[in-house]
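Researcher: Next sequence.
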Amino acid sequence: MLVIYIILGFIISVQLGMTLAANLIGNGAVNIMERSYFKHPRSTFEKLMNIVFYLLYGVPHYMYTRLMTRYTYWKARVLFLLCSILLIFIVFILIVIFGLIVDLIAS
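Model: Next structure:
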């Protein structure tokens, strides 16, 4: 069970880290994310790497690219900042809920 929490913590921390990087840097952070994505995966390794891409960078990459294609640059950046704050708030709530569940199971 501890291993699952460590893996989830790692995935969430990378998601939040890349969200912060996309907020600070912008397109450069998205370009860094896209370097680990294979456009036309042929082998099993490339397909696995795309799954890892979505696990690690899925939420910030999707939000950033979606907002940038729909709105003007500055409006998209402000909306992305608001979505990032919402993501951090949701992660905080999930951490509290998991902590309460673990506390109930332990006692």
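Model: The chain is about 85% helix and 0% strand. The chain has a mean pLDDT of 87.
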